[in-house]
Amino acid sequence: MDDPVSEYTARLLQQEKEIKLLSAEIERLKDPQSLDFSSTGLDELREENTRLKYRLNILKKSLQEERSSNSKSMTNINQRLQEIFGDAISVAYPDLEDPPLAVTPNQQAKFGDYQCNSAMAMAQMMKSKGQKVNPREIAEKIVQNIPDNELIEKTDIAGPGFINVHLKKTFVSKLLTNMLMNGVQPPTLDKKKRVIVDFSSPNIAKEMHVGHLRSTIIGDSMCRLFEFLGHDVLRLNHVGDWGTQFGMLIAHLQDKFPDYLSISPPISDLQAFYKESKKRFDDDEEFKKRAYQCVVRLQSKEPDFIKAWNLICDVSRKEFQRVYDCLGIQIIERGESYYQDRMTAVVKEFEEKGLVELDEGRKIVFTPGQSIPLTVVKSDGGYTYDTSDLAALRQRLFEEKADIIIYVTDSGQAMHFHVVFAAAQHIGWYDPKVTRVEHAGFGVVLGEDKKKFKTRSGDTVRLMDLLEEGLKRSMDKLKEKERDKVSTPPCRKGGGGGGNWAYRLIRFAHSLSLSLSLSLCLVCIMSIARLANIQEAALRKAAETCEIVLEHEKEWKLGKCILRFPEILQKILDDLLLHTLCDYLYELATTFTEFYDSCYCVEKDRQTGEVVKVNMWRMLLCEATAAVMAKGFDILGLKPVQRM
């Protein structure tokens, strides 16, 4: 007997090939210049076109059903509905180019589960072309052409042309069962991509402060999301390990520890060391001149100065690693120094293509459509952040062969990256239609003076102090809720403390109280089966044999909410806004609470407390909720509160 997997794969490939051939034939029939009207009548062509579209829809449906029945992945219901309505619109209005496609979850249950809002936008598009059509008529025509499918129970049209969609309960139940049996699996991946996420990026010779925490946490969570979806992810730490500030640090090192070449200097407080050197640099002109000379000798790579530079970098790395260990962060350091030798080649490439202009001794690059130039060489011949970021981007595109590159910094750097990306496109390094290069910005962290934190000022809040305070406050909240005797503080997977857990969800969900509530909710859900003495083996068997009944409105609401998880992940991939996941987890927790308050999962004798009845399909809904919440926590890099 043939291998069933190979046989299934061959059938899928054959069907996909037929779909492409039929689609090409339909497009050919749309072009009157390619047709011989003397031998083929218009009516015959229309009839052939209709037959082809019918066959195409049958093939698509067959392909989708085969994929669904053999896939362990979670189904993105919204995406599937978009495919269905996209087919319906293309059949109903074949001559309308790029018709708008809008499918969203319905906000009011009485109107159904999802809603297609394309009709109104299509009416506006047709009106601009001189065709006046009532949007309700458009909606009716779309509904008439919805192909047979596995998930829509019925549709109805409301108002000016809203198409309300009611899902089949059996379809939702089947998806929940599939998830329980196979776990929370990512949606099917069309192509594995090389993803680079540039995040954290503290400055050498300065301790990390609260301003770095957002980039570190958001960047790590983005990496976790792309990794969960099956992509090849490279986590890069673009540390500030090169520049003029190292001149003053080396000069101060030479004065304070003159034997640093033979005896490792005991720099225990890098913060104080930096502030001392900065004060001397600002107040002492002779020291400033010597600092500039040190920069030149460092850039010339004189061995003694390279050793001094390495000593300072190593002290910083140890401090950075303390933070990363606490947060459980895995990241590869590639600082500005890594790209120094590549900067000369980058400048030369821009010069050879005639893109460099001279401006008062500087070499600048203007990009079409951008009002601000990039300075690639300073008047003194040195390179800049612009040069460094261009060199880094080029290396990632051509050497790492990245498909997606994401920079996670505060939004104050948005304009800088916008111009860098524009210059890279202008010189032909990448096509944004093929390669995705984006800046994922977040709010600027302000100090008490309402000004942005600056690491070079030396007066910022130490990150380790903040993490320790986060741990203290999370314990205080547990005590306030009288859970300190039965729960341990929430902590980061692989990390040693709760500061990260507290800070992550404070940043995402805006409230420590809300953060702990989400974690405690997950713990409570996971304990329901244990308190009812239901073993894991019994739950696994129930998932295989028990149909998940969704008759009660709260069961139905919870089931749909659980299955929106792939939609949420897709939205984050589209806009890179991770707070959407926290909002969803909160919605899932509140939806579960409504369900648990209205639907008995376990019924006990009021006097003895013994379990008298277990509604197993509801227990399975509890398990499904816990599984999705746990995966959401995992993507955010969190481990929930633990029972003692």
UniProtKB/TrEMBL annotation:
<feature type="domain" description="Arginyl tRNA synthetase N-terminal">
    <location>
        <begin position="79"/>
        <end position="167"/>
    </location>
</feature>
<keyword id="KW-0547">Nucleotide-binding</keyword>
<dbReference type="InterPro" id="IPR036695">
    <property type="entry name" value="Arg-tRNA-synth_N_sf"/>
</dbReference>
<keyword id="KW-0436">Ligase</keyword>
<keyword id="KW-0175">Coiled coil</keyword>
<dbReference type="GO" id="GO:0004814">
    <property type="term" value="F:arginine-tRNA ligase activity"/>
</dbReference>
<dbReference type="InterPro" id="IPR035684">
    <property type="entry name" value="ArgRS_core"/>
</dbReference>
<dbReference type="GO" id="GO:0005829">
    <property type="term" value="C:cytosol"/>
</dbReference>
<dbReference type="GO" id="GO:0005524">
    <property type="term" value="F:ATP binding"/>
</dbReference>
<dbReference type="InterPro" id="IPR005148">
    <property type="entry name" value="Arg-tRNA-synth_N"/>
</dbReference>
<dbReference type="InterPro" id="IPR001412">
    <property type="entry name" value="aa-tRNA-synth_I_CS"/>
</dbReference>
<dbReference type="InterPro" id="IPR008909">
    <property type="entry name" value="DALR_anticod-bd"/>
</dbReference>
<keyword id="KW-0030">Aminoacyl-tRNA synthetase</keyword>
<dbReference type="InterPro" id="IPR001278">
    <property type="entry name" value="Arg-tRNA-ligase"/>
</dbReference>
<keyword id="KW-0067">ATP-binding</keyword>
<feature type="coiled-coil region">
    <location>
        <begin position="5"/>
        <end position="62"/>
    </location>
</feature>
<keyword id="KW-0963">Cytoplasm</keyword>
<keyword id="KW-0648">Protein biosynthesis</keyword>
<dbReference type="Pfam" id="PF05746">
    <property type="entry name" value="DALR_1"/>
</dbReference>
<dbReference type="InterPro" id="IPR014729">
    <property type="entry name" value="Rossmann-like_a/b/a_fold"/>
</dbReference>
<dbReference type="Pfam" id="PF00750">
    <property type="entry name" value="tRNA-synt_1d"/>
</dbReference>
<comment type="similarity">
    <text>Belongs to the class-I aminoacyl-tRNA synthetase family.</text>
</comment>
<dbReference type="Pfam" id="PF03485">
    <property type="entry name" value="Arg_tRNA_synt_N"/>
</dbReference>
<protein>
    <recommendedName>
        <fullName>Arginine--tRNA ligase, cytoplasmic</fullName>
        <ecNumber>6.1.1.19</ecNumber>
    </recommendedName>
</protein>
<feature type="domain" description="DALR anticodon binding">
    <location>
        <begin position="525"/>
        <end position="644"/>
    </location>
</feature>
<dbReference type="GO" id="GO:0017101">
    <property type="term" value="C:aminoacyl-tRNA synthetase multienzyme complex"/>
</dbReference>
<dbReference type="InterPro" id="IPR009080">
    <property type="entry name" value="tRNAsynth_Ia_anticodon-bd"/>
</dbReference>
<dbReference type="GO" id="GO:0006420">
    <property type="term" value="P:arginyl-tRNA aminoacylation"/>
</dbReference>
